Amino acid sequence: MTTLVTLEDAKRQGLVRYFTGEPCKHGHVAERYVNGRQCVVCDREWNKASRQPNAPKAARVAREPVMASASKAYGFSEPKPWEWDGGKRREPVLDMDRHPPVAVRHVGWRCCMRCAKPFFSEDVKALRICDGCKGASTANLG
Predict the structure, then answer these.
(1) Strands (E), the chain
(2) Collapsing DSSP states into helix, strand and coil, what is residue 126?
(3) How many CA atoms lie within 13 A of 92 on its CB side?
(4) Which of 43, 48, 69, 100 is the most buried (most CB within 10 A)?
(5) How confident is the model over 67-118, as pLDDT tens digits?
(6) For the whole prediction, is pTM greater than 0.70?
């Protein structure tokens, strides 16, 4: 029989698991992990189910190894420029070398802060002046 240990006592003693004697939401009376407070039996069942080939994708996705294939894209996935839409649409530029892909910046239409003309920005958060006005500002500094 496992002795009762509270979460606070387990943290103080540096233990990985604790046992309160209370059932989890699935009815298991078992030890729980200090990190995440998940029932050990529930965790074991989830891990077993996630290894099954017919398991739901939500259970498998965290356990699937990242495998390089010929169809996998590398580098950045940049969307092509589109027609002027009033500056409403923003599309992410994805870093395909990371799993899952991560948005590194967003592209879209902006209006130049200096001349108020629309231009397609390669980074809608950082680029706020069109190329024509940018060139004029550096010429005035010299």
Answers:
(1) 17-18, 32-33, 76-77, 90-95, 102-111, 118-121
(2) coil
(3) 7
(4) 43
(5) 444 445 678 888 888 898 888 888 999 888 887 888 899 999 999 999 999 9
(6) no
